[in-house]
Amino acid sequence: MKIFLDTANLGEIRSCVELGVVDGVTTNPSLLARETGSWRQTLQAICEAVPGPVSAEVVAEEFAGMIREAHDLASIAPNIVVKIAMSREGVRVIHALSKEGIRTNATLVFSPSQALLVAKAGAGYVSPFIGRIDDVSNDGLEVLRQIIEIYDMQDFDTEILAASIRHPMHVVEAARAGAHVATMPVAVFDALFRHPLTEKGIQLFLDDWKKVEARGRED
To answer: pTM of the predicted model, to two decimals?
Structure first.
């Protein structure tokens, strides 16, 4: 499973990419609004720092505006993937862009039926928001598993990108279910590295090594 970072902070992205396990980045208007400077320059810098896809979202709601913004975003860098929110117009835009060879990420997907439509329209990625589904007392991971089952049975090429990841177990269960990608905040990414037994083991080794060094000094 590929790991994407859900952030527009260039410093965070660079520090994580150098670890060699980050495959891409997802952004949205809210994440870009938190950063200073030009949003276009921010996206350009992210695309240069990241080895894989970088999702950037259109904000228009009508077909012509969405297409115009999609073309503008796609011109920033060759690894830009255009995020399109799920709607009737959004599906139409995804279909039109797919015929142009512009890769898309269908976002704000909350049901298997929505995921079915965007795959048929030609989306490169579908982003089910599993955490937000949990927030309304439904099972986000079960929705994810249903989407994976449908895509496998129908042999769709669209990659399933588990989004709205809230904690490490979301990542683990998305991987177990067979999601192609999980995108997560840097805080969740950092939590994947940690385990209390690892920390305890490291401290034990360090403490014991201090004893070895002390004996050496005595000799």
So the answer is: 0.94
